[in-house]
Structures
1.
Amino acid sequence: MPKIHIYDTTLRDGTQGEGISLSVEDKLKIARRLDEFGIDYVEGGWPGSNPKDAEVFKRLKAEPLKHAKLAAFGSTRRASVRPEEDANLQALVESGAPVATIFGKTWNLHVTEALRVPLEQNLEMIHDSVAFLKSKGIEVIFDAEHFFDGYAADPGYAVSTVVAAANAGADSVVLCDTNGGSVQAFLLKAMSDVQAAVNIPVGIHAHNDIDMAVANSIAAVESGAVQVQGTMNGYGERCGNANLCTIIPILQLKMGYDCIPAESMTELVSLSVYMDEIANVIPNDRQPFVGRSAFAHKAGVHVDAIMKQPRTYEH
């Protein structure tokens, strides 16, 4: 079966959700549970942003994960410093994580209004940051932040940011629907242009602001994406991230992709519940595949048929 790499960002992007706060011990428990489950990449957090995440990486460096690759998240260098002098990039190196996932600006609006640097300088920041991390022997994933909004505003420039990362040696690039407002046809057109421009693996990171994060992630895989980023139970800011508890069984059970060890699939429900318990979140009973009501039938014709043959009313 074709391999799709699952990248879990529950410990970083998931904790951006309102009401979710994880301690160091919580994060370590979740990281090890995801590792046991068979997730390929576990993002431990942003080591340069707060002492809690720095401690998580320190602990995981002393007792490494067995299956999953630990990823440290950060940004490209600041405009005013060289990469070797940038505290954020140094924190990524010092974390000991074998994978660094860095985000860079791809939307010209963000470059001119948030970073307030010339467009060309932003390309240099992306290139320099990736090249620096690669020189340290680290696997580098470039998260193209706001890629689809950037593509809508200026397709050529948005693609040029991804090319800059690829030319600097990025191992893969992940296209981020950071505002979560893209529809499939547009998303796939943008993705196609990236695939034509670079010769490295492409992934997808979708947010759920118009309830299309799962659908967009699946469509991206069908169009050649080999990495899917998301969170367990869809945790995340605003309307959440792409829900890995839905994406994994769709890809593996419905479409024949290889995402996790086959024997781990029976643990998906308990993993979902485990996450809610640690995060102190009320479970969504109507969540596909793992919710208590996902295969529940109340009465009447449905129940009569189910008792005779479950396939009559279960996908």
2.
Amino acid sequence: MSDDPAVASADVTVLSVETPGAGTFARWELTYIQGYSTTVVAYRAADGVPVSLIGVLGSPAGFGWTSLEVWQDGGIVRCGITWRPGGAGYEAAGGISGTISPPSRVLVNPGRVTSTEPLLAGHVAVWAARQIPAAPLASADAYGIAANSDLRSWDREAAHLRLARLCSEDRVALEVTGAPVDEGDVTRMGWQQPGTRLELYRQVEATDGGRLRESGFGLAYRPRFDISNQPVGLVIDASLRELGAPFAPDEDSDIVNDVTVRRPGGSSARAVTEGATEFVPDSYDVATSTDLVLADHAGWRLWLASVDEPRYQATINLHTPEGAALIEDWLALRDGDRWQIHNPPPQHPPGVVDQLLDGYTETWKGRRWWRVQLVGTPAGPWDVAEVDGAQVMAADGSTLDDGIDDTNMTLLLASTDDNGVWGTDPADFPLDVRIGGEKATASAVTGSSSPQTVTLSARGLNGVQRAWAAGTEVDVWLDAIVAL
């Protein structure tokens, strides 16, 4: 039941229960009065005369449930009402003489009273026993959080637990991999919306940001939490001839810089790339438990959609001697897993091609021809720094104060006044750094003011090693900022 009877346009008969059998009474009505009182009235079968059974001051406010209970006690008919939450209960004093018969029809708000707020009843159930076998409104879930039950439409249910419950109700096999361990990594859903099975499954996926796929004769789900900061599952080394053709960036992929998320029955939030002058919009519906997290959802989706990195398509020929070395890792790879290409062809940007598996096409021709074409999206946005993790962040805007040649093992590092200098704590080293497009390892940074001296222990770790001019950007290499 919901919400405030005072905002209804008239008194509301919440339930009208018809019992026109051989009993004394033909109809029972539970009515909420605008002045915050409640009545239960029975109407005699013979002449339709109303008999007031319960009249109490008060009525429920907020989302919960109400039970109307009528039972035979010898030659006396007794009735009562119970409200949850709150646990208030009222019973007709003394009862009345007569008999009852089973209900034949139950009507909700038969007077069609309107309201300025969400009004009254959703789910109706009829029980043969007086002690209604109702579940509690809420109970602690696996994370110790009081998530609401079906009596409150599963509000605040963890996303992956909702999917598991829905699949169980539908008798669909489901495998959940990488479920969050801590409550802070859980996505909480709002009230379960009407929809088909697939619509409800997809709503979980869209709200959590995970990945849902077919698996055998059932489904498999990977929560958003499990996609972040994952190890590499497949490494393709082009220098070993493990990379086939075609291999190219996806030229049709659009970069979105304007994201809006909407919550059914709630508010919306928008995130836009700072400094954008032309907007490429996109929007999402997310069934979160509260409006307070919508800005975070919009920002996260903007982060994923606006990354300015190529989306790659790559090919591996597993029937060749070089490709055969990849078979075991390929067979273990799943949707959303991380794959990389090392030493890519020179027409591509230097460095490692780092992608998540978005899809693939697998082709066999006879027993001796086996090709896989992978489709990816950048893995970098999913590398997320963690509180108290091992990540190290560079001071933005750092550059070479003076040029270096392709053999220098020291460099002068200039930092901006606004962002400050790099840390010199020995515990942070060795640290992989990026000098332009070259990966190198720094063994130490010394000096407390700009420019600082950086001592290198290795250069050209990604196959790129050359001279760099003053003003070249220096940053922490991507792998070093992630706490794995």
3.
Amino acid sequence: DIRFCLYNGNTPEQVKAESRRKVPNEVLDREQLRDNPPPILVTNATMLEYMLVRAADAPILEKSQGKLEWVVLDEAHSYVGSQAAELALLIRRVLHGFGVKPSQVRFVATSATIGDNNKGKSGEMDEAGEKLKRFLAEVAGIDMKQVHLVVGEREIPALITAQSVSARESVNELPSPEHDTVAAHPLARRLRALFTEKEGTAKVARLSEVCRVLFGPSAPYNQIQQNLALHWLDRLSGTISPTDKEGKTDPAFLPLRAHLFHQTLSGLWACADPHCTYRGCEGGELDDPAWPFGKLYLEPRKHCECGAPVYELVACDDCGEPFLLAVDSGAHLL
């Protein structure tokens, strides 16, 4: 029974009555939005700017005077520096346009990536938490004492199988996906302990730490070891348990949230000698007759370890065929 509208650049000017009848609680077009504004408007900063200055959107403000009660800002961490200042000015204009004062409106800012907002030994909020409160106070134009910070904490369910049974600790043999089997496996329990400071709470662990549990302190760990470590995490976070008489199942042995980072390469460079002795180990991906060049490098250099010249690797836009960015001047490659 709650009407709402998603108002962005893709919102059509008008839709057919048949489409409106299918979703009576959602305002699908601008005509309906201006004629009868809904209680909830999901939009963005750009559309708010248009709404404040565009004559066509004036009915939205006229019919909503004094009715603005909540302002919810999602992804609050994205508003920093000049963006935060611009947003603060925009919100002040929005309040004026809707005919309300900051004291009449409740502001909510949400973020899943702003700091570790835990309380220290003194019970005071940490620096990240204080920054988030200050941000919302400045954006909303209210006193910081009016801002209350709600912090979420991730919980890990207690183990169903408490005892550990004797099992072969073979890193290469993953336990079967049944919850009870995984919960009783010594390696699985040690990996779980890596992500838990104490039962019921969670901590952050790097992939290298997972490898250390599985393979011992022999860093750096190669690609095969890292892939196997990821397979272990996949098995531990995707355990299967039978449904009991009440229809309940055990939670995952180790529910995880992963943060994966990809570094964009500035380019690739390759040795010009297809018989390069450093092109890769036997059986490696470059050890293939179809690969026409030698060893690959992630940064520019003049010569390969084998002594041959190195050039930037490019590909044809049409067929993807790899080439070296060089000019054949006869006797020498330039």
4.
Amino acid sequence: MNETFFRNNESVVIDGYKYFSHNRKLTHRRAKRGSGGVGVFVKTELFQVYNISVLDNTTEDILWLKFSSEIHSENIVLCVCYLPPPESTRLNDPEMFFSTLLEHVYSYQNEGRLFICVDLNSRVGDATE
């Protein structure tokens, strides 16, 4: 899982992997590179066992993939997401981000076993309790 700085439909190719991404649609006018998004590399060998598809990419900085298989009885649902830091030029509303993420968890909890990979930029909060 990674935070990206691609523009529009830009991508990267690495032998042995397929790249799934959800790049931001709008680039900040002063951006020297793309304005980010999220992406994940999936080893191509997994396509021999799983049908891998994008389950949801309707929310900026959140991408859901579904790994389904006729061989395995349980599907895998993978979420990759990124919460921009407070000093970012992007809207940073952690409550809305986590609320949306939780809403998605409730929506997809019956699709299979959920895994969430998240980049919080090492922010664990400043609460003392």
